[in-house]
Structures are given as C-alpha cells and as structure tokens.
Amino acid sequence: MRALHKLSAVKARTAPPGKYSDGGGLWLHKRSDGGAQWVLRVTVHGNRREMGLGRAKLDDSRSSDGLTLKEAREAADKWRSVARSDKDPIKERERERREAARERHTLNVVADEAFEARKAELKGDGKAGRWFTPLELHVLPRLGKTPIEDIDQNDIKLTLAPIWHEKADTARKAMNRLGIVMRHAAAMGLDVDLQATEKAKALLGKSRHVAKNVPALPWQEVPNFYKSLSEATLTQLALKLLILTGLRSMPIRHARLDQIDGEVWTVPAEYMKGLKGKAQDFRVPLSKEALAVMEQARPFARDGWLFPNVRKGVLSDATMSRYMERLEMDARPHGFRSSFRTWCAEATDVPREVAEAALAHATGSAVERAYRRTDFLEQRRALMERWADHVTGGSGKVVRMVG
Question: Are 293 and 302 in contact (CB under 8 A)?
Fold first, then answer.
C-alpha cells in the first residue's frame, strides 16, 4: 500500500500553487488564483480514473463550502473502497445522486411545482383551489410520498378505483391533473412513464357513471318563476339577470358597473367558461328588462361589484342554488340556459348560430369560425328582447328594431 496522509493541514494551507499528493491517489491541486480542489486517482478495470471530490477548504473559516483535509481523506477512503470492488466510483456517485434526486422528487413535490407553473393560467392564480383539490383529496394522500419516477398505472388504478364509478367527474379531473404533473416531471428531466394515466384508464375500464343534466325549468314555466322573484334582494335580482341574459352564474356574480356601457355589458373572458385564456371578451346585449334589473341592483353595489357578498367579495356560487332548493324546486340556476335554448328551438325561428352565440357557444369548424368575424350582437339584441318579453309574461314575439 502506498504511503497515506503525507500532507499536513499547515502544508496544505501554505503550499504554493501546484499538485500535492496525500497518498493513496488523493491529490491537492492548488491554483494560482488562490482556489484549490481535491482529486482522487483510482484504477478500475485497468483504466485510470480521475475523480474530483470537491473544493478544498484550507482555512479556519466557518463556511460549510469545501472539504477539509480530514473530510477529503474520508471521501477518498469511501471511493477507493468502491474501486476495490471493481465498480467505477464516478458512475457509482452519479447513481447515488440520481437516487437521492429520485427520493426528493416525490409526487407531492412535483405536483406543487406543476401547480405553481400553471397558476398564471388559472383564475385568481388558482387560489380557489379547484385545480389542485382533486389531486389533494384523492391522489396525494396515497401516492404523495412516492418518488414520481416509481409511479405506474397500477398505482394510479388502485388510487382512483374507489371513486372511478361513484365520483366519475372528480376521478376524471384527478386523472387529468395527474397526467399534467407527469408531463411536468418529464420536462424536468425525470424518467417518468408518460403513458401511465392512459394505461390506468384502460385498467379501470369505462365508468359506469351516467352523467345527469342540470335540472331545468321548462321554458313555459319560466314566466311564473320570474314573477315570483318579487323582492328586490340581491339573490333574486341576480337570478333575474341570470335568466334574462342566459349567462352562467360566474359572470352574473362578478358583474361590475364599469363593464356596462349603455345597453351592452362586456364580460371579461376570464369569467366566461369557453373563453378563459383567450383574448376576446364577451359582449352581452341588455334588454330593457335586464337594464331595469341592473338599475335595481345598483344601490347594493360595493367596490364596483353589482352583486357583492355581505362581508367581502361577490355573491357566493351556491347562493342562487340554495334559494331554489329552499323552494323545493328540482331545477337549478344553470338550467335556465337550457330553458332559453329550448325556447329558441321550439318557439322562435332564430338561426342556430345566433342562439348558440347568445350562450357563448362556438359553432362550425375552426376554419369557419376563423372567417366568421361577427358575434351577432344586433341579432342577439332582438332575440334577448323577445326572450325578456316571454319571461315577463308577454308573447315573446316582440322585436325591437335597431336603427
């Protein structure tokens, strides 16, 4: 055995630039710029390998950066032992680093990173939690501590099987989010199976859950319900505006005074389900009745919101639904969109494109939509006036001519 420990701490610190052997293949390389590093030379399978052990710490500073002479000798002992077992210490170190990284990159960690990366695409930076909640409730409790590189289709199957048929929509969202997290991991350079979620779907089979449409009030009964909204409360006024405009509850609840210009209400794309992430906002032609409802709600406005909550923010998402529940109705607020669309089909001769545009639905192929540069605002204005006339007890045949 070659002599070991030939260097002293003093010599290592005071020696001029050059290369100094400590024995056993351990060398100290001192550079002219004042820096220094430890290098270990070993022979594996007849080939000499030179392995950097790290920066040399030769002073008495408390910095944790670098290896002292004692620490360098300990590291050299470890890697010489690896070389004696006919393993390449450089490759073995890389393997250990990958293993350590694998242990650090659990599903919990990568899911958080993926969520952070997508926040800019989500409403309110995802603070409401709807994007992350399916993962948080149904995936992370079981798989969160598992290295993401170890997750396969069987793990995903066992995790989502309990809700696959009973809570089909939630399971679908959880699977979708998990697929996004797996793709994020691949972008990080991790060795994940990008087909794991698709394979898991194959193992789980087709969901037995039968989707149910939101209960809707028949269009013939809408006038009686509208007439019953006789109190000028925020909830009833919000329901009236929802019925009159055919919008979902989100744009109604987030209506702002500065969005209204004359007889047109411009709803920001972020509040429209089909327009999120797109540049265009959605113009809503307001009937005389809708304008009257907004005028009734104006005294309640706070911080610019037309339908503020009692404490802060805007009217709760469930407020209108609970109102209809207390009336022991099967129908729900979202169902009035169906009431309106069925009325269009059965009681009017309005073109399909106009009726769908009123609901902010896309029609036709992508090419057709690219060449169609209209949102049918004037046609929708006449249509919504007819709908308002029907809702308030009229015939629904009145058409307001626009000059």
Answer: no
Into how many domains does the chain fold? 3
223 assigned to some structural domain: yes
Asked whether residue 66 is domain-assigned, the answer is: yes
- Distance, in Å, from the CA atom of 230 to the CA atom of 222, rounded to the nearest integer, reads 14
Q: In this structure, is residue 212 part of a structural domain?
A: no
Distance (Å, whole) CA 46 – CA 58: 33
CB 353 within 8 A of CB 363: yes
Q: In what order do the strands lie in the sheet with 26-30?
A: 18-23, 26-30, 36-44, 47-55
- Quickly list H helices, 221-287: 222-228, 234-245, 249-253
335 & 189 share domain: no
301-333 pLDDT, tens digit per residue, is: 999 999 999 888 899 888 999 999 999 999 999
pTM of full prediction above 0.85: no
On the CB side of 21, how many CA atoms lie within 13 Å of its CA? 7
Domain co-membership, 250 together with 286: yes
Summarize pLDDT for 348-368 with one digit per residue, the tens.
Answer: 999 999 999 999 887 766 666
Of residues 345, 341, 320, the one with CA closest to residue 331: 320
Residues 276 and 309 in one domain: yes
Domain of 314 in residue numbering reads as 219-391
Give the C-alpha separation, 247 to 252, whole Å. 7
Q: Which two tokens stand for residue 382?
A: 């006449």
172 lies in the same domain as 23 = no
Tokens standing for residue 297: 């709600």
Place of tokens 């610190």: 13
Spacing of C-alpha 212 from chain mean position: 25
> Could you tell me the CA-to-CA distances from 373 to 219, 259, 365, 376 in Å, in that order?
31, 22, 14, 9
Domain shared by 168 and 227, yes or no: no
Sign of the CA dihedral 380, 330, 238, 296? positive
Helical (H) or strand (E) element with 395:
none
Q: How confident is the model at residue 276 (pLDDT cuts 50, 70, 90)?
A: low
Instruction: Specify the amino acid at residue 281.
Output: D
Q: What percent of the chain has pLDDT over 90?
A: 56
d(CA 198, CA 399): 52
